[in-house]
User: Fold this.
Amino acid sequence: MDIGIDLGSRAIKMAVFQGDSLVACRMAESGFNPHQQAVAMLAEFAARRVVATGYGRHLAHKGFAHGVITEIKAHALGARHFFPQARLVLDVGGQDCKVISLNGEGKVLNFQMNDKCAAGTGRFLEIMAASLGFTLAEFGPMALSSGHEAPINSMCTVFAESEVISLKNHGVPPADIARALHLAVVSRLLGMLGRQGEAGPLVFSGGVARNPAIVALLQERLGGEVLIAQHPEHVGAVGAALHAKGMSSSAQTPPKIGSE
Assistant:
């Protein structure tokens, strides 16, 4: 089995290929010791090769992975696996956003990342949902239930939370605030897409692609369909697994899984 493992800031995602078939996807919280968590997840499978991506990829390479791949290349490979026509990839995870443009063969032409601030990421949405008394699962549907929005002037998590508290105290309905927050996130993502300067079929990956309001507002503003895999949070792990599949069988054998 060829396995890709994406050690992200908030969660670890794993994709398992047997031959050309994707046979399993797993996800767990990173926890205090993501390396140990990853080793425990891998124990379920008889891995032939393991390739790591994400924040923790280099530590994984020291311990159990055959190799590493950048998040950019992993998401490009994963997106094209699910959607061969993809020319743009928008990945929004727990703590960062990235936009990747691809050529007709799926090679990376250009990319940009917002990895210095959590604004517009899953963590931002999680904090804003909590400030309004919603779970993250409730937050998107609540935003879609409103046809109005209150102004949100800041995308800084701290300042935006202060604005939300002020709007609540002025009697603005929570659904309207939720819609405004989602629109602010979408505006930020559209700005990143616009700066990339490329057009074409867009794949939305990462856990935030499960938020129905973000998806609906993106499609509304873009005027077209956004492509989303069945498990969008696993796109990077799938790309890493595909890279593992393509590694030479003569590659140096890595340390045994679980070794130090």
